[in-house]
Amino acid sequence: MERELGGVKSRLPPDWAISPLGDLATAIQYGYTEKAQQEQVGPRFLRITDIQNDSVDWNEVPFCVIDEKNKEKYRLQQGDLVFARTGATVGKSFLITGSIPESVFASYLIRVRLRADIEPKYVSYFFRSNDYWRQISESQAGIGQPNVNGKKLAQIQIPLAPLDQQKRIVAEIEKQFSRLDEAVANLKRVKANLKRYKAAVLKAAVEGRLVETEAERARRECRSYETGDQLLQRILETRRSQWQGKGKYKEPAAPDTTDLIELSEGWVWANCGAVLSGIEAGASFKCVERPPAEDETGVLKVSAVTWGTFNEWESKTCSDPDRIEEDYLVRQGDFLFSRANTIDLVGACVIVHKISKRLMLSDKTLRFKIASSVSEQWLLICLRTKFGRGEIERLATGNQESMRNIGQDRIRQIRIPLPPIAEQHRIVAEVDRRLSLLRVTEAQVNANLQRAERLRQSILSKVFSA
Question: Which residues pair with residue 29 across a beta bridge?
Fold first, then answer.
């Protein structure tokens, strides 16, 4: 029998009803307003941010001060459903199951307590379905921060089976989902192993263990070769002889190697300042928060260089045409470096392989000019290793985790291993070969994870829509 579910026709069995959530609940209640505390001053205080990946680590949930009357009013119990009523996760729900510590819920959550003749797991599964999310999307209010209030939540239409069918449906969903959960867990283990493999490849690359070293090859071929130290001296001599900067030429400082490992034969430790012929900075511009059109000029966001590949769509449109400068424009082949971000992301770097928009460097994005005798891909590998990240984080300044900065002088102090140039190119080629295979496997894993989610939604759709 076809009936309307939240404005969309659905084919449901004749003994099913379509009921608003408000009719199925004994109470729909906003949470308690109080400051969360890490010290055990009262019960656990469940917040939106404590609900991650459909689970709660109760040991990590903070506490709050609350009197006995309100503690009883806001106490969570098995079978309660809590909803995020505002923010980026608006509509996300969580079912309280099993034994939990004494807990109350925070004000950005709404609690729904269902009637005794309603199976909470059945309703909870509906709240994961596309039919539910479509209704939530239509119910959201707010131009800036989206939100759903208790009144709108009470109007959510739910396809309601008889109680005995609810229990059988829950059992079948859990059987199907347990198979999917096992498959997803295996896929996530593969992803974790791929991440470890990538880190191992990069570590081997910068320690001289990935390809035959130039020293070994030269001995085998009975020839001489230019060592990393000789390469470094050649770079410095060329820079010294071509110096046209202000004042007297200043030799870059040698790195402190007392805490560093011994490198492969023919390698040498160097500071970034020795292999960089220059660092160019952008500027701060008034912008419109959208990528530029074809006839406009934009400015890079930090996120354009954050996630491993250059993303020109992470940009804003410059609203002050008088300040546009050609020298700031990003070009193909540029090596870009983020000088300001969180501690985990400051120093993110990319090489621009393709660009179609007119984009300028921002004040938080730097362009490295690299000596011609050093592979830019080699420098990229060095800065992306665990050691390279450690160097960046060691030299970054700032007291807040939310924003760190690394200035040009400190960038020049970053220590990197420098092998002979021919070996650099062989290492880069081998890293690219191995990571290309890794990316293919990773794409297959991601496709299967998406397929698992589609299967989940297909199961829920068959239950609640057909």
Answer: 111
* 340 CB-near residues (< 8 Å, 6+ apart): 302, 346, 364, 403, 404, 405, 406
Q: What is the DSSP pairing of strand 287-288 with strand 315-318?
A: antiparallel
Alpha-carbon gap, residue 271 to 413, rounded angstroms = 5
pLDDT digits (tens, 9 = 90+) for 68-117: 999 999 999 999 999 999 888 899 999 999 899 999 999 999 999 999 99
**Number of domains, the chain:** 3
- Assigned domain for 136 exists: yes
Between CA 41 and CA 125 the distance in angstroms is 35
Candidates 46, 41, 106; CA nearest to 67 is 41
Are 323 and 390 part of one and the same domain? yes
pTM value is 0.80
The percentage of the chain sitting over the pLDDT mark of 70, rounded to a whole number, equals: 96
User: Is the separation of the CB atoms in 310 and 355 below 8 Å?
Assistant: yes
Print the SS3 string covering 388-448: HHHHHHHHCECCCCCCEECCHHHHCCCEEEECCHHHHHHHHHHHHHHHHHHHHHHHHHHHH
Cα–Cα distance for residue pair 275/231, rounded to 1 Å:
10
Asked if the structure places residue 170 within a domain, the reply is: yes
Quote the strand ranges of 282-426, DSSP E: 287-288, 297-300, 315-318, 335-338, 340-341, 349-351, 358-360, 365-370, 404-405, 415-418
Which backbone phi and psi does 317 adopt, to 5 degrees? -95, 125
Provide the angle, in degrees to the nearest 10, between the axes of the packed helices 421-464 and 130-139: 90
Residues 6+ positions from 451 with CB-CB distance below 8 Å: none
Q: Dump pLDDT digits (tens) for 258-302.
A: 999 999 999 999 999 999 999 999 999 999 999 999 999 999 999
Is residue 67 one of the residues assigned to a domain?
A: yes
What residues does 32 pair with on adjacent strands?
Answer: 106
Q: Return the closest-CA partner of residue 410 out of 430, 392, 429.
A: 392
260 within some domain: no
Question: Mean pLDDT lowest for which of 142-151, 196-205, 233-242?
Answer: 142-151
CA distance 408 to 318: 25
At residue 427, φ and ψ (nearest 5 deg) are -65, -45
* CA separation for the pair 387, 389 (Å, rounded): 5
Q: Give the pair of three-digit tokens for residue 332.
A: 């193909």
- What CATH number should be reported for the domain holding residue 362? 3.90.220.20
Q: Are residues 137 and 70 in the same domain?
A: yes
Contact 268, 215 (CB under 8 A): no
